[in-house]
């Protein structure tokens, strides 16, 4: 532990004990519930993740219940939370723990980090909170607190930065109470040392904070811009037949929304008119052998769905047909399928599916 550790950890834990939120997973050290909460809160705010935590713990009160569920059930319950690989990995790991480890979670960092979908951060959180092991967590909140207080300008998304922040976090860790310390620094970053407009004048570290005292709070932490956002143009064909059936197709390829269901899709290089859409090979393939009665654009303006590395410009085309021949789904059952939130929003507002 370095010379900064006592002042930092003591102040932080004192602040936490006085100001912490009463969250449902904080009343337990059961690794199943801690694991669930940590997986759900990756890339997700607490307010958004909380309802999903309650749904999962009510539906799957034990790891055996989660393991016994179908993947479709898990994805349906996860629907709207995004980053669906988390749900698939959650299910895979639940089955491994239930059937290979007899329901007992690993109790060492090494074994925890080997679980599918569990990285350094989640393994450190479970190890420290559930088993009092001295492993420091480092997530976006921790990067922000440490970078500002100690004035670190090394980018957080390069190998040197990742290593340096982990080393510092480990040095600052209160080893006699690592679970409380880890929750304290995450809470402080999430609620006080926030990305935009933190109340620095009221901060417990304002006297020591390098960024506050040199006026660089807005510039820290440093993150190099690497990812160029790609624009994609989706055209969904919403088939409707007289016998009240439509068509859903499961996305089995790797990439976004793997294993979720969607309407037949034609991806184009830009927004297209109906005449241009009909000339697309994908469109011709999807309607081959089907008697089209009409094709009407649902709304002129595209729905823009923003993902981390890509923006999806999406339009829905209502395709009236004499019959649906493949992947038939009764309209009365369409809400039973796990779909991306983009599709769910359309289903919720389109009159043919709401009557």
UniProtKB/TrEMBL annotation:
<dbReference type="InterPro" id="IPR005760">
    <property type="entry name" value="A/G_AdeGlyc_MutY"/>
</dbReference>
<dbReference type="InterPro" id="IPR015797">
    <property type="entry name" value="NUDIX_hydrolase-like_dom_sf"/>
</dbReference>
<keyword id="KW-0004">4Fe-4S</keyword>
<dbReference type="InterPro" id="IPR023170">
    <property type="entry name" value="HhH_base_excis_C"/>
</dbReference>
<dbReference type="InterPro" id="IPR003651">
    <property type="entry name" value="Endonuclease3_FeS-loop_motif"/>
</dbReference>
<keyword id="KW-0408">Iron</keyword>
<keyword id="KW-0479">Metal-binding</keyword>
<keyword id="KW-0227">DNA damage</keyword>
<comment type="function">
    <text>Adenine glycosylase active on G-A mispairs. MutY also corrects error-prone DNA synthesis past GO lesions which are due to the oxidatively damaged form of guanine: 7,8-dihydro-8-oxoguanine (8-oxo-dGTP).</text>
</comment>
<dbReference type="InterPro" id="IPR044298">
    <property type="entry name" value="MIG/MutY"/>
</dbReference>
<dbReference type="GO" id="GO:0034039">
    <property type="term" value="F:8-oxo-7,8-dihydroguanine DNA N-glycosylase activity"/>
</dbReference>
<dbReference type="InterPro" id="IPR000445">
    <property type="entry name" value="HhH_motif"/>
</dbReference>
<keyword id="KW-0378">Hydrolase</keyword>
<dbReference type="GO" id="GO:0006284">
    <property type="term" value="P:base-excision repair"/>
</dbReference>
<dbReference type="Pfam" id="PF00730">
    <property type="entry name" value="HhH-GPD"/>
</dbReference>
<dbReference type="GO" id="GO:0006298">
    <property type="term" value="P:mismatch repair"/>
</dbReference>
<dbReference type="GO" id="GO:0035485">
    <property type="term" value="F:adenine/guanine mispair binding"/>
</dbReference>
<comment type="similarity">
    <text>Belongs to the Nth/MutY family.</text>
</comment>
<dbReference type="Pfam" id="PF14815">
    <property type="entry name" value="NUDIX_4"/>
</dbReference>
<keyword id="KW-0411">Iron-sulfur</keyword>
<dbReference type="GO" id="GO:0032357">
    <property type="term" value="F:oxidized purine DNA binding"/>
</dbReference>
<dbReference type="GO" id="GO:0000701">
    <property type="term" value="F:purine-specific mismatch base pair DNA N-glycosylase activity"/>
</dbReference>
<dbReference type="Pfam" id="PF00633">
    <property type="entry name" value="HHH"/>
</dbReference>
<feature type="domain" description="HhH-GPD">
    <location>
        <begin position="40"/>
        <end position="191"/>
    </location>
</feature>
<dbReference type="InterPro" id="IPR011257">
    <property type="entry name" value="DNA_glycosylase"/>
</dbReference>
<dbReference type="GO" id="GO:0046872">
    <property type="term" value="F:metal ion binding"/>
</dbReference>
<keyword id="KW-0234">DNA repair</keyword>
<dbReference type="GO" id="GO:0051539">
    <property type="term" value="F:4 iron, 4 sulfur cluster binding"/>
</dbReference>
<protein>
    <recommendedName>
        <fullName>Adenine DNA glycosylase</fullName>
        <ecNumber>3.2.2.31</ecNumber>
    </recommendedName>
</protein>
<dbReference type="InterPro" id="IPR029119">
    <property type="entry name" value="MutY_C"/>
</dbReference>
<dbReference type="InterPro" id="IPR003265">
    <property type="entry name" value="HhH-GPD_domain"/>
</dbReference>
<keyword id="KW-0326">Glycosidase</keyword>
